[in-house]
TrEMBL record:
Cofactor section: FAD
Keyword NAD: no
Protein species of origin: Actinomadura yumaensis
Family classification: Belongs to the acyl-CoA dehydrogenase family.
Boundaries of every Acyl-CoA dehydrogenase/oxidase C-terminal domain copy: 227-377
Name this protein carries in UniProt: Acyl-CoA dehydrogenase family protein
Keyword Signal tagged: no
Positions of the Acyl-CoA dehydrogenase/oxidase N-terminal domain: 17-117
Highest taxon listed in the record's lineage: Bacteria
Length: 405
């Protein structure tokens, strides 16, 4: 067995090496330096051995443990790493492929994902299926040697930059809605895939709508079982909630207690009892969020998966983000909506306009509360009268009875 003192010393050394590498390669990098520079950074991170730290070595990861991952994240907290565009691949698609992908899929896709050569997106939500994503209507029909995909997805983050995406589609409308879904890997460069940007309230087009028109997909691109796509999707969503909550615990929060108390001090508001009370509330909420995430990471280190408890972290993050928006508008006044500046209140304003999305993306606050009630607290499930009815007999989205073939 390794001596714990030796292990701690080698971890410290590991953390020092990470920091030195980041100082050399990431100091002064803008958080969004453009796609080519982001890819180059990711490739350099991979070559240095810091991408996929806990992922299996046979697929391109480093095969190390959570302590090394944590040491990396601690060092990375002080740098603005341009990794946003890779977040869905690293946080959701890669872990899904590693959990339930075939050997060929893992060998084909994981290494280029870790090197930033291939960007991934996640195509679940549809115009008529968001919270109730099992009502999805995009369909895949087996035609000779391929599945043919037709339909529409919406709110797909980074789809314009993506090379591949995980799609869930209806493959059997004759069974209840959760049972006739299959997950596929989709080549986003296929001529039958059209991606259109959707502008959000930050002024940017972070997400997109996607149209599939007769996209042919080989059977070896099915992820998990045919008609087993619901459990595949749940695997992705569990990774998503943990990665949103725990990821945010490790990255800079522009509208944090620290940033807002500095802003209050600069404006001579720190002695104002109303402002102080709001800041204290925010501090408490931040501490609760950080402590919960510290506990979840310790559990992951001990081999206990957070499962549905990832939803607690995601819900706390959404509440914290909205709360900090309130406090920021109190302290900054009109400046809290002053976009444009890269630093100071401009940076806070940008983060705030992104904030409400946090209560929706990855599952809304209401859905998180339902999951926590059902699966963490063991409360009775929400009644679902449509769980046993064949999909084609349901009235969902734009489905007409005869269209639900
Ligand atoms: C920033 C961001 C990024 C996103 N990225 C992606 C992505 O990459 N891929 C992807 O597939 N999707 C993505 N989404 C979409 C996201 O998953 C959906 O917006 C979300 O699941 C909610 O679905 P909806 O928008 O259709 O709202 P709806 O499901 O129509 O919900 C409307 C309202 O009804 C409430 N509601 C619905 N059902 C219940 C219920 N059973 N009990 C109580 N209240 C309920 C909801 O909480 C909400 O307030 C993203 C969204 C955002 C904001």
């Amino acid at each position: 067995m390794t001596d714990p003192d030796d292990h701690a010393a080698s971890l410290e050394e590991y953390g020092r090496r990470v920091r030195a590498w980041l100082e050399e390669h990431a100091s002064g990098l803008p958080a969004d330096p453009g796609l080519d520079a982001a890819r180059a950074f990711m490739a350099a991170l991979y070559d240095a051995g810091y991408s996929g730290i806990t992922w299996p070595a046979e697929y391109g990861g480093q095969g190390l443990g959570q302590p090394e991952e944590r040491a990396f994240q601690q060092a990375a907290r002080d740098f603005a790493l341009p990794l946003g565009v890779f977040g869905i691949g690293l946080g959701m698609c890669g872990p899904t492929l590693l959990s339930i992908g075939t050997e060929e899929q893992k060998r084909r896709y994981v290494r280029p994902l870790l090197r930033g050569e291939e960007i991934w997106c996640q195509m679940f939500s549809e115009p008529g299926a968001g919270s109730d994503v099992a009502s999805l209507q995009t369909r895949a029909v087996l035609d000779g040697d391929a599945w043919v995909v037709d339909g529409q997805k919406v709110w797909t983050s980074v789809a314009r930059q993506a090379d591949f995406g995980l799609l869930i589609a209806r493959t059997d409308p004759g069974v209840p809605k959760h049972q006739g879904i299959t997950m596929f890997v989709i080549d986003m460069h296929d001529p039958g895939v059209t991606v259109r940007p959707l502008r959000d309230m930050t002024g940017e087009a972070h997400f997109n709508e996607i149209f599939f028109d007769g996209v042919r997909v080989a059977p070896d691109q099915v992820v998990g079982e045919v008609n087993g796509g619901w459990s595949a999707a749940v695997t992705t969503l569990l990774h998503e909630r943990v990665s949103i909550g725990m990821g945010a615990a490790r990255t800079e929060r522009p509208a944090s207690f620290a940033a807002l108390s500095d802003a209050a001090r600069e404006r001579g508001l720190l002695e104002d009892p109303a402002v102080r009370e709001q800041l204290v509330d925010l501090y408490l909420q931040e501490r609760a969020f950080d402590l919960l995430n510290a506990r979840l990471s310790q559990e992951v280190r001990a081999g206990i998966q957070p499962g549905a408890r990832g939803s607690v972290s995601k819900l706390l993050l959404a509440d914290l983000t909205l709360r900090s928006a309130d406090v920021a508008s109190e302290i900054l006044g009109p400046e809290s909506v002053a976009h444009g500046a890269e630093e100071g209140s401009g940076k806070i304003a940008r983060a705030l306009s992104w904030g409400p999305g946090m209560a929706l993306g990855g599952g809304t606050n209401e859905i998180m509360r339902n999951i926590i009630g059902d699966r963490v607290l063991g409360l009775p499930r929400e009644p679902q009268v449509d769980r046993t009815v064949p999909f084609r007999d349901l009235k969902v989205g734009t489905q007409e009875k005869e269209a639900g073939r």
